[in-house]
Structures are given as structure tokens and as C-alpha cells.
Sequence to fold (104 residues):
Amino acid sequence: MSWIMILTLASIVFFNRYVFLEPNVPLKIPEIINKALKYSAPCLLTAICGPIILMDHGVVRAFPLNPYFLGAIFSVIISLFVRNIVTAVLLSLAVFYLINHFVQ
Fold:
């Protein structure tokens, strides 16, 4: 039964992507929706990362000693100065490791 659900969701995702990526499909998106879609990735990333950064098993983490929050702040600062994604990710992981190692 679960493989039916997996195949159904995979087909829904595939056809949703296909409609937007195939140039031969005559689909016109209004300009306001096209502009709004540019913000969907940061919104989704925030929705995924927010609970990880702020919560620990349903309890709000203490802010002064929260290595996840400090790591997120340093990741934003690093990404502002470093324009290479791989370098920013590696530096952010190194900073998070150091913060996590020394705070806890």
C-alpha cells in the first residue's frame, strides 16, 4: 500500500515540475505570481530550519547558549561576505562545529 502512495506522490511532483519546466506547454503565469515564486525557496528553507534552530524536543532552546541559533547567525554573516555557496556552507559548518564543541 505504501508503494502506491509513493508512486502517486512521485507522479504528482513530476507532472507539477513538468508543466512549469517544459517550454512547449502553453502556460502563462501572471507577473505577480512569477515575482512571488522567487520568494518560495527562502520561505521553505525558513520553515524547515526554524523549528530545528529554535526548538529541542518541543521545548524552546535557551538563546544565549543555543549553538543552532548562533550557527545560523554566523551562517548569514558568512554568506553575506562569501559569494561562493560551497565555501559558505563549509565555513558555516566549521563555525557551527566550533560553537557546538565549545558551548556544550
